[in-house]
Amino acid sequence: MSMFKSKLQKKSEIDYNKQFTIDQLLADPKMLQIHAERLKAVYKDATDDFIRTQIDQIILKENAFNKIMQYLTSNFSFQIDATELDEFKKRFKAQFNETDETKLTELAKKLIMKGLVFEQVIAQNKLSIDDAQVKTYLDNYYKTTNQPINEYLNNKEKFEEIRNIILEEKTTQWLIQKFKVWIDLKTLVRFDGSGNEDNNKA
Predict the structure, then answer these.
(1) Which of 38, 104, 180, 193 could form a disulfide with 89 if both were Cys (CB 3.0 to 4.6 A apart)?
(2) pTM for the structure as a whole
(3) Alpha-carbon Rg of the chain, whole angstroms?
(4) Where are the domains of the chain?
(5) How distant, in Å, are the alpha carbons of 36, 43, 149, 154, 161 from that of 138?
(6) Helix, strand, or coil here: 25?
(7) Does the keyword Aminoacyl-tRNA synthetase apply (predicted)?
(8) H or E stretch covering 167
């Protein structure tokens, strides 16, 4: 059963043998800053070089994933529920301190479409996360951050939230590994807050 009020309808079969080429990397400085802050929160003693290397990997991964998602969503038509769209927009407005309605709408639609496509991919390919994997994830989180995990172990709803987070990451990794993505890098495009582009030769 879908977690979403929005719906999708298949237009064509997904071709998992499809290949993609990335000739420029897109990077949003605001999102990179959020990633950097999260990394520093987890790896408290990390050097700037370590954080920079991790950010570089995130940029590559996100660009590859975005290329794949553009293709995957083209295989479906979507009916976005207005109430659900508003709920997502409110969440992102608070999370990212974003006030541009156009950007919020675009982001919300992308996340809803991604969620719907992921449900299809997960069901079609029988992807899953068992309880042991959730507990291992939480154990590793505790060892890395020294943050308590009992609230997740002893609360079924929160335990399932962690399962969904891991399953989403597993699905993302599965898709990146399933499709062939070639890097033929010519430019790095950074978007500032106004949407302008700053092109740097790689």
Answers:
(1) 104
(2) 0.80
(3) 18
(4) 22-74, 77-125, 127-181
(5) 22, 16, 7, 12, 12
(6) strand
(7) no
(8) helix 156-178
